[in-house]
Amino acid sequence: MPRLPPVPRPAAAASTSTPDIVAELGRIISTRRWNKGAAYKRLAPSVTAAHVADLFRAPPAPLHPATALAYFEWVGRRPGFRHTTASHAALLQLLARRRAPANYDKLVVSMISCSDTAEDMREVVDAIQAIRRTGGARLALSPKCYNLALRSLSRFDMTEHMGKVYSQLVQDGLLPDTVTYNTMIMAYCKEGSLAIAQRYFQLLRESGMELDTFTCNALVLGYCRTGDLRKACWLLLMMPLLGCRRNEYSYTIVIQGLCEARRVWESLVLLSMMQQDACSPNLRTYTLLIKGLCKEDRIDDARVLLDDLPQRGVFPSVRTYNTMIDGYCKSGRTKDALGIKSLMEGNGCDPDDWTYNSLIHGLCDGKTDEAEELLNSAIARGFTPTVVTFTNIINGYCKAERIDDALRVKNIMMSSKCKLDLQAYGVLINVLVKKDRIKEAKETLNEIFANGLAPNVVIYTSIIDGYCKLGKVGAALEVFKLMEREGCRPNVWTYSSLIYGLIRDQKLHKAMALITKMQEDGITPGVITYTTLIQGQCNRHDFDNAFRLFEMMEQNGLTPDEQAYNVLTDALCKSRRAEEAYSFLVRKGVVLTEVTYTSLIDGFSKAGNTDFAATLIEKMINEGCKPDSYTYSVLLHALCKQKKLHQALPILDQMTLRGIKCNIVSYTILIDEMIREGKHDHAKRLFSEMTSSGQMPSATTYTVFINSYCKIGQIEEAEHLIGEMERGGVSPDVVTYNVFIDGCGHMGYMDRAFSTLKRMIDASCEPNYWTYCLLLKHFLKTSLGNAHYVDASGLWNWIELDTVWRLLDRMVKYGVNPTVETYGSIITGFCKATRLEEACALLDHMFGKGISPNEEIYTMLIKCCCDTKHFKKALSFVSNMIDCRFQPHLESYQYLITGLCDEGDYDKAKSLFCELLGMDYNHNEVVWKILNDGLLKAGHVDICSQLLSAMENRQCHINTQTYAMVTNSMHEASGSVVSELRGEAA
């Protein structure tokens, strides 16, 4: 049963009395017949227990012990006056110091009776020790007094002080009795210190005293608290043989232990045994059983027991009903939980705060409107909602993504002067970010600061994670900086979210730099972090670095998981390096899973080795890995690419026999190949089969048909199909629009092509590089006359700027203003053709329109400058990037530094390298990309050695594996150069 809070009373330890009152009181009491005089009557109403304590402590204690004792007893009888432990302690010290005769037992018992806190009991222990220390054996207390002190200390779980009092009792030459030992045993058993309890039990046995029920119950409790239910049950069964009768408490202790251990069926056995033992189960026993049944999801059994209680002569309390309500709510049966509330009200048991909070929490899982209605009803009945109550409702609305309702409840909460806590703010911010309501998320974060709260790492990280998932990595980095400024340390989740966001934003170099920062913050990157970085390197087809990261992960004592292997395998297979992927997995002894097999089948299929891919499917089945629809789709795709439709179609039958449903990807692959082979009727029949099987066409499926219409010039039919897919809830993607624009261009319908561009942008579908290539191709073709054929792949080698300017003007005419992506696509085309002059002209045109270049444009221009050996221009672009707060990619530095060394400008290369070391890059990646993959592959061994020394001098973080790799590469390169020189000399 929970302990009630103590009645407030004046503090005892510190003096709160007025010196004048204490001095005057001392003078009055020192006179004869002081209690009859007018002086005391005038002073008496002002005298408190604090004054009395100070009076007895006043040096050099002028009061005679007898006078002090008499006054203490006299003033204690005054109406409204109550002695404190401090006033008792002061008197006891005065009496013991003078070794004055007094009933010390009575005084200590009185002191214990007015002890309401653990601090009060500490004063009691100090007083007992002071009596023994100053008064000696002649002032020794009785065993009864000591036992009372022990029981009172036990009430506050003060076992350490109990040990001191017990020692004092023994030192006084007193013999502990059964009460003493039972009190000590029970206290240590409650605490779970069974070893100490057993020592006192042994002392009890050695003293020749008989065990009683209390002793055994205490030990049973101790065994239950330490989880040794076997011994608890054994002792319960042995109690009659030990001469101890079992009572309701004996059984209830063990029933509680078994229920908490989810062994409720054994508890029910004890219940039957208890009734046979003439022990009547009490309400607590039944409440524990109901709770245990609910924990084991035996809700209906718990309800049967609850309904049966009145017939057993036991009437449920609010706690019993609450236990049942909690069980129903946790099982999602909120209707039944509300039924219990009605039942308890019908039985005259009023719901308490716990009842309402439990019901509201349960209803908030899908029935938040009902939860709010219940809250309003409860408030009308006097219920005071807490921050937990409101947070549950806010959380419920947030789960249902009803953010406006959540914000409404938040405002109600604040108007009721109930402040939100960090958990509530965290829930709100999380859903605001998820719903892309970034402005409100920022406002909520500011509100946290305004309310004097400090956002924790969970709140900051949820915002960062949300931003990163929405592709707003710049905003995520701003929150990260704010987090650091406010002194909140990021955790692994924070860094993992940022790394994911940066890689998604194609800023791998920044993601790699975070590894170094993590380590500086004392956070060890985990497998997930490394796997994300490996994915980033694979996305850039930088497999050497991906393997290096893999090795670094293993070197740091981490075991790559299935996802890590799958990422690397899938990327290698997609790059037509399936054999390398397969060899890697075999070398590592990896057990292949469905996902791994599918990646390998896809890789070998795309490499043209469909026979081995089919063999892998059989091997996969033999090893107990069931192929899914995606596994077969990759094989179908490979066969169709090789014009083997006749081999692909039987695979559908094979899938059916194996109980695998053909997915939308597989259908689309086959439809596409049928159309390519001119089998339009077959394609339409397969399309009908697909829709009738419940597979909804995707944008890719529609695009296959749109492409076929465009190729034969049926633009109207193609456009009608676009409208049909939109009406069917399928949004055209960039490929769909590109196919249609290309079709319009082939037919010379340039107005329709530009209208489609406008339609595309209005639908929030961002045009890509190929969109502008197609527009330029057909725009140029129209300008030259339809007799001329224009190849998009060679377009950038000879297209003139004049054509580009006319294209941009035509876009504006159709209400499409060129964006940074527009300029970026065209600049990319010119840079790929190494036409730096035209690319720079477009850059100037951008600036003239007030459009600032993005990071990708600068990166393309730097590469183009290096390809055309315009290194001075490249350096200026690097400076411009840094001025715009962009961080140049390490590849840009690789091109520049290697190019400068090729030109013999080693000083400038070294200066540039030292500058980049002062920026946020991962130093291992710097070695990989610039020293090893750049300078050494270009044969610049000496400068590579100098730059490595520069890194060592700056104490850059390079792991041993990376250092060994680059030094070995330098030795090999040096040996190769010597061999070449010897060959030339010969």
Commentary on this structure:
InterPro entries: PPR-containing_protein, PPR_rpt, TPR-like_helical_dom_sf. Belongs to the PPR family. P subfamily. Keywords: Repeat, Transit peptide. The chain is mainly alpha-helical. The chain contains 55 helices and no strands. The radius of gyration is 42 Å and the shape is elongated.
Annotation keywords:
986 residues; mainly alpha; 55 helices; 71% helix; 0% strand; elongated; PPR_rpt; Pentatricopeptide repeat-containing protein; transit peptide
Secondary-structure topology with pairs:
Layout: H1 19-29, H2 38-43, H3 49-57, H4 65-76, H5 85-97, H6 104-113, H7 118-135, H8 143-155, H9 159-171, H10 178-191, H11 194-206, H12 213-225, H13 229-238, H14 248-260, H15 264-276, H16 283-295, H17 299-308, H18 318-330, H19 334-346, H20 353-363, H21 368-380, H22 387-399, H23 403-415, H24 422-434, H25 438-450, H26 457-469, H27 473-485, H28 492-504, H29 508-520, H30 527-539, H31 543-555, H32 562-574, H33 578-588, H34 594-606, H35 610-622, H36 629-641, H37 645-657, H38 664-676, H39 680-692, H40 699-711, H41 715-727, H42 734-746, H43 750-762, H44 769-784, H45 795-798, H46 801-813, H47 820-832, H48 836-848, H49 855-867, H50 871-883, H51 890-902, H52 906-917, H53 923-936, H54 941-953, H55 960-985
Helix pairs in contact: 1-3, 3-5, 5-6, 5-7, 6-8, 7-9, 8-9, 8-10, 9-10, 10-11, 10-12, 11-12, 12-13, 12-14, 13-14, 14-15, 14-16, 16-17, 16-18, 17-18, 18-19, 18-20, 19-20, 20-21, 20-22, 21-22, 22-23, 22-24, 24-25, 24-26, 26-27, 26-28, 27-28, 28-29, 28-30, 30-31, 30-32, 32-33, 32-34, 33-34, ...
Pfam families: PPR (PF01535), PPR_1 (PF12854), PPR_2 (PF13041)
Keywords: Repeat, Transit peptide
Protein name: Pentatricopeptide repeat-containing protein
